[in-house]
Amino acid sequence: MTQLQDILIKNPAAVMTGLRGPRARAGSVDIRIVNGRIAEMAAGLVANPGERVIDARDSVVYPGWINTHHHLFQNLLKAVPEGMNQDLQGWLASVPYPRLNRFTPQLAQIAARLGMAELLLSGVTTCADHHYLYHANGTTETGDLLFDTAETFGMRFVLCRGGALESASAHPGFSKTALQPETLDQMVGDIERLKSLYHQDTPDAMRRVVVAPTTPTFSLPPTLLRELAHTARGLGLRLHTHLSETQNYVNFCREKYNCLPVEFVAEHEWLGPDVWFAHAVHLQPAEIRMLAQTGTGISHCPVSNARLGSGIAPVPQMQEAGVPISLGVDGVASNESGSMVGEAHTAWLIHRAEQGASATTAEEVIHWGTAGGAQVLGLGSVGTLEIGQAADLVIYGLDHPRFFGFHDVAIAPVVAGEPIAVRYSMIGGRLVVDDGVIPGLDLERMRAEAWEGVQQLMHVVD
Ligand SMILES: [Zn+2]
Question: How far is the CA of 328 from the centre of ligand 1 (A)?
């Protein structure tokens, strides 16, 4: 982790704040960072002795993106040929499931290192990883390695502790391998261990633990779903899981439980401002109202949803109803990229394609990917650029022909999308990308380790 230093960002072309409405833009103000926090935002600030000055001409400043749904281990499973043209079920059965027992903690760490490097170089400063490589006879060490890896990069990290329980042995992920799901005691014991070692309650926490069974429907019996909610709330931890990603998911719930997925989770005490769901692609208006009324959030993952043909989440309707919305890249085995710029660009476009040009604005999409993420994760000190907030911010360089000719450069990263370069990124005032590079990162070694990992995961005998 780099040293904390006071920093003055001078002369950016524009500053986006992550806030809504007229406060979404702060103009071209300078930003002073003292002791890891934003101390001043005003034009014409003069450098103090000992301050590092960053010249941000031809650049725009954004709050660091907050990625609220990822599966970092999938960074070694990009473009697996047998899963390229499959829907969610076929893809799960042919890409991650047959390889679950191949992921040693070391291989998962190589994947996580690769994923975090890509996240940082797209401007992400907080990552919530839904990590579900847990089974009855396996090690729980990978969770610890993920926290270690995040600390090496200086990244704010939320471990959503996944997995499946007991009667889930019919789960296709387990029937594909010889793996057995954990018992409730195993899962809860590890959650308590992780909480005592890593979890911070503060609004600027660098480390959080979340209770996150892989799905509420397929991964555990309903009684244990409710019990896990009680466990999480007893420990003061948030709740996260996948919900209503495909029409099949809705059909399963209707057939097995005679209700809609949001009704099912409501019945088992899985709604509230301490819960957020990944995807929520297939929702009825009544379900949207339930999410809004309870303050339950979502992680919108439009690229993965498009890639797997799952559909387009009714996010403009959710926003209208007041559902807290955030963005997630999902695992890169169903995205091929872990870039939040790519995700934001797609989020901006895809609802307009379906619902018309007023369905999204660039400012709203920036809000979802920054302040919205902070809200669903309960990290009140990040996600916006305002005085007093932790200095989690990214400086995008616009010195490339594709960014010349803009009438409004403030929104260029979202509306033009990639390629775009992060010149600087900081987390709590510490530079995690400095002059375009991650300090100390050995890219050649990373490439070699990734290639070696791919070899180990490539051939699967079904
Ligand atoms: Zn996912």
Answer: 9
Cα of 95 from ligand 1 centre, angstroms = 13
Token pair, residue 151, equals 């600390």
Q: How far apart are CA 394 and CA 126, in angstroms?
A: 12
pLDDT category at 310 given cuts 50, 70, 90 is very high
Ligand 1 centroid vs 48 CA: distance in angstroms? 46
pLDDT digits (tens, 9 = 90+) for 47-80: 999 999 999 999 999 999 999 999 999 999 999 9
**What are the chain's domains?**
7-63+383-433 (2.30.40.10), 65-377 (3.20.20.140)
The angle subtended at Cα 108 by Cα 102 and Cα 113, nearest 5°, is 150
The answer to whether the beta carbons of residues 326 and 273 sit under 8 Å apart is no
Q: Given 3-state DSSP classes, what are the helix, strand and coil percentages for the chain, each rounded to the nearest 5?
A: 40, 20, 35
**Token pair of 140 as six digits:** 């729980």
pLDDT above 80 for 167: no
Q: Are 212 and 240 in contact (CB under 8 A)?
A: yes
Closest Cα to residue 41, out of 18, 12, 64, 5? 12
* CA of residue 411 to ligand 1 center, whole Å: 28
Residues 6+ apart with CB under 8 A from 309: 87
Q: Is 320 exposed, middle or buried (0-12, 13-18, 19+ CB in 10 A)?
A: exposed
Residues 6+ apart with CB under 8 A from 432: 2, 120, 125, 153, 154, 155, 425, 426, 438, 439
- Ligand 1 mean position, distance from CA 71 (Å): 6
Q: What is the pLDDT of residues 337-376, one digit of tens each?
A: 999 999 999 999 999 999 999 999 999 999 999 999 999 9
- Three-state SS at 238: strand
**Contact (CB, 8 A) for 18 and 25:** no
- 117 CA distance to ligand 1 centroid (A)? 19
User: Which tokens belong to 232?
Assistant: 């999480």
